[in-house]
Amino acid sequence: MDFVVAQFLTGLASASSLFLVASGLSIIFGVSRIVNFAHGSFYMLGAYLGWTFVTNLPYGHLGFWGGVLAATVAVGLIGVAIEIVLLRRIYAAPELFQLLATFGVVLVVQDLTLAIWGPQDLLGPRAPGLRGAVEILGQRFPRYELLLIVVGPVVLGLLWLLFHRTRWGTLVRAATQDREMVGALGVDQKLLFTSVFFLGACLAGLGGALQLPREPVTLAMDLSIIADAFVVVVVGGMGSIAGAYLAALLIAELQAFMLVAPPFTVLGIEIVLSKMTLIPSFIVMAVVLIVRPYGLLGRPMAHARAVTGMIEPVVRPAPRELKLVGLATLAVLLLAPLAAGDYGLIVLTEIVIFVLFAASLHFIMGPGGMVSFGHAAYFGLGAYGAALAVKHFAAPMSVALILAPLAAGLGGVLFGWFVVRLSGVYLAMLTLAFAQIVWSIAFQWVEVTGGDNGILGVWPAEWASNAYAFYYLALVLCVAGALLLRRIIYAPLGYALRAGRDSPLRAEAIGIPVARIQWAAFTCAALFAGLAGGLFAFSKGSVFPTYVSIPRSVDALMMVLLGGVQTISGPIVGAIVYAGLHEQLSRLTDYWRLILGLAIIVLVLAFPQGIAGAAQRWWYRGKGEVA
Amino acid sequence: MSSADLLAVEGIHTYYGRAHILADITLHVRRGEVVVLLGRNGAGKSTTMKTIMGLLRPAAGRIVFGGQDITGWAPYAIARAGLGYVPEDRRVFTDLTVMENLEVGRQPPRADAPQWTPERLFKIFPNLGEMRNRPGGRMSGGEQQMLTIARTLMGNPRAILLDEPSEGLAPVIVDQMADTILALKREGLTVILSEQNLHFATRVSDRAYIIEKGRIRYYGTMAELAANEAVRAQYLSV
Questions:
Q1: A513 Cβ partners below 8 Å, 6+ apart?
Q2: Residue B60: helix, strand or coil by DSSP?
Q3: What is the CATH number of domain A320-622?
Q4: Shortest CA distance to A516 belongs to which of A532, A500, A531?
Q5: DSSP string spanning A491-553?
Q6: Does B162 contact chain A (CB < 8 Å)?
Q7: How confident is the model at residue A627 (pLDDT cuts 50, 70, 90)?
Q8: CA dihedral A486, A487, A492, A494 (to 10 degrees)
Q9: pTM: predicted TM-score of the whole model, two decimal places
Q10: How far apart are the C-alpha atoms of A369 and A310, rounded to whole Å?
Q11: Is residue A277 scored above 80 in pLDDT?
Q12: Residue B66 in contact with partner chain A when CB distance is under 8 A
């Protein structure tokens, strides 16, 4: 019993940190409708800056509390700078471009942090006066944790006062609902948004700085916290601060108790909960989203009114010139091996596989209108499906390449059933949750998947072991897959899918079972992503959990978005540009993330419709047609 | 433009994407007038109002308010210049109480416009005074319409754009709305409203512009319009 209390208290302390980050994310999302991927970076910067301010300033230092405060404000100011330089220019851009831009910030911050603080983990200082432990019901409990327990509710209370007892808070709540109207009433939105960003970034920075005595400062803090923070915000309800606290509590307690749960056996399989701490939060999220689609305390989101209404352009058959360009590209890809060296061939194979991966994501995002944050799940299921078949059943490549899409397709059937019940940001978050579940299994179920070490020795069959042969195999399968997806867009399924995207109610009213169509499309996309994953496994000879990780999902999003969501050639252009860029950069410099991040930011600012989208507009404008 | 004009809209053209919605709209409104923009659904009334308010950017033409060229200004700057906007779909902040909704609209008083406080507004809108802490989402359509007008008045505007104030309201409430507009006119407020309801418009307005398919087809005093059966039959009868 005493032990339960101690564990409960630990959960409370963790909930506070999680809440600080999640509440900032939630507040920023509420007003600006931006899902700020860089929020984890703010948290990480808070920890690094805190470390510097508390212990390592060149001339003396600020002490623990002074350092924490300075780090909080500094992160707030960094947030303001990012808002003014970058986000302010893209508030009218489609949601996902904003996401893309903030992910660019994540990459830049990662490399800047690496450059400034180096790759080693840093050990934080203890808080003065809060060293050591107190005894609670016979259990020793760190004093500092007690402080953290208090911080969460105190910040919650202060935020409540701020939002309900000040004019600024009233304006923020009004803008969360209808920011255009707030502007028409004489409120300068720019100033409001910037100040909201400052507050949100400060909260993340405070969360990071307060972690100093609890855990070492590392370069992996950003993406690990952002996944949890997304879950908390979604479970609590987007924009609901009390909901965020409740959700943080739920998830932190769950994790705290799972760490100490004894193993048990279900259907002959031993379940070791303490080794699966990553999975439950995502299962909680999936369950909550199905039972309460808008989160525990959330409400259906008012459509954030933007000044410019974006209308999806009509998907039209490719003009003859574009078909010629397509044929020329194919010809280049067919002949390329003649000129490319061994290394070039590997890069080309990878690009061809990514074209199919991107095309499969585009299929549900563009015509389907379903934005998946977790498309790597199906890529990974395909890769692991193929690798496990080879490793555990000694399957030949041909069989494994059939199993790969089937494994991913099964995942698509299962996850898709839940996913199509939601829409918009919630749908995106649910796909992220499912991808994280797959990732957790790949990472934590070491006996089967090899965990972090992955599965090695997934080599192609004899006849395809030559790099040229494998390249042509990949080219044939991927081009066929991409063309098939393209064909479906113009088939009745594709029309029904687009009708469901543009107006679900009207589509239902003319007899289209929208959810079922979306489910079918989702499964279809998963199948092709799985094929890409299977091919990728054989091209590398191995699989790793990184194939299912958030960055891999983001890779796919980047390719689709860079190419332009509403153009069919988009994913192809995007995959070639992105994979090429990625490959070249990582060869040229250790700081490739920095350059890639900056490139992404510049591309988003320059081409808010994507590269292919911009080319399409330019093309039709030249022709004097309505684009 | 004559120097007596508070608002002058001169030859504006507005597009939605490639669709040409407003063509060469010109309006002149003098201080203290109530001017109505009459037209059927989809004629371009709301687009005209949104363009004046800066919510849409005109491709050509200019908008002058109080002697300042406000073309291309951000909506908040136009509101601060003393032009209030009451949208047709009300857009009260449903999560905020009546008092909080009013607070969002509050701006510093200006010398050349009527000055409002919540207490003064509750004299004109007595219903609102009885539900100060009720969230906007739990009010009837008529109460919400009154709240949006009151909220805009909290900015102490010199003129307000009132987009279809009678739309979707019960006849009794429409009558109240007419009284309210006349009361505001007596306060010295300039009102530009859009309407489909000719009877309502005739009760409150001094002059009318008739808009159809994005063009001004007729303008004159309400008396002239009342005498011109041909124009009414052509543009306003259903």
A1: none
A2: strand
A3: 1.10.3470
A4: A500
A5: SHHHHHHHHHHH-HHHHHHTT--HHHHHHHHHHHHHHHHHHHHHHHHHHHTEE-GGGGSHHHH
A6: no
A7: very low
A8: -10
A9: 0.85
A10: 13
A11: no
A12: no
- Mean pLDDT calculated for residue range A18-26: 94
Check CB contact under 8 Å for B104 and A177.
no
Tell me the pairing of strands B159-163 and B215-221: unpaired
Residue spans of the domains in chain A: they are 2-255, 320-622
Whether the CB-CB separation of A177 and A55 falls below 8 Å is answered with: no
| Domains of chain B, residue spans | 33-56+74-235
- Give tens-digit pLDDT for A24-46: 999 998 888 888 889 999 999 99
CA dist B213 and B67 (Å) reads: 29
* Averaged pLDDT, A586-596: 82
Q: What is the 3-state secondary structure (H, E, C) of A447-472?
A: HHHCHHHCEECCCCCHHHCCHHHHHH
Cα–Cα distance, B54 to A479 (Å, whole number)? 48
Give me the pLDDT at residue A305, please. 35
H or E segment and range at residue B187: none
Report ipTM for this prediction.
0.93
User: Three-state SS for A566?
Assistant: coil
In whole angstroms, give the CA distance from residue A26 to residue A17.
Answer: 14
* A574 touches A357 (CB < 8 A): no
CATH number among 3.40.50.300, 1.10.405.10, 3.40.630.30, 3.40.1080.10, domain B33-56+74-235? 3.40.50.300
CB neighbourhood size of A243 (10 A): 25
Residue B118: burial class (beta carbons within 10 Å; 0-12, 13-18, 19+): middle
**Chain A interface test: which of B20, B56, B76 (most A C-beta within 10 Å):** B76
Q: What is the mean pLDDT of residues A318-336?
A: 78
pLDDT on residue A262: 72
CB contact under 8 A, A184 and B104: no
Class at the top of the CATH hierarchy for domain A2-255? mainly alpha
- Between CA A296 and CA B113 the distance in angstroms is 47
Longest dimension (CA), chain A: 80
Query: What's the pLDDT band for A202 if we cut at 50, 70, 90?
Result: very high
Tens-digit pLDDT profile for residues B208-218 = 999 999 999 99
| CB neighbour class for A3 (10 Å; exposed up to 12, middle 13-18, buried from 19) | exposed
Is B91 part of the contact surface with chain A (CB cutoff 8 Å)? yes
How close, in Å, is residue A167 to chain B by CA atoms? 7
Q: Which one-letter DSSP state was computed for residue B130?
A: T
Contact A184 B87 (CB under 8 A): yes
> Residue range A142-148: average pLDDT?
89
Query: Does A181 contact B96 at a Cβ distance shorter than 8 Å?
Result: no
Per CATH, A2-255 and A320-622 having the same topology is answered: yes
pLDDT in tens, A356-379: 999 999 999 888 888 888 999 999
CB contact under 8 A, A626 and B18: yes
> Higher pLDDT residue, A336 or B144?
B144
Tell me which of B20, B50, B88, B93 to substitute to probe the interface with A (most A C-beta atoms closer than 10 Å): B93
Residues in B 12-51 with any Cβ partner in A closer than 8 A: 16-18
Convert the pLDDT of each residue in A365-420 to its tens digit: 888 888 888 999 999 999 999 999 998 888 888 899 999 999 999 999 999 998 88
Reduced 3-state DSSP string for A218-274: CCCHHHHHHHHHHHHHHHHCCCCHHHHHHHHHHHHHHHHHHHHCCCEEECCEEECHH
For residue A424, the one-letter residue type is G
Contacts of A495 (CB under 8 A, 6+ apart): none
Question: Is the pLDDT higher at A272 or at A256?
Answer: A256
B123 lies within 8 A of chain A by CB: no
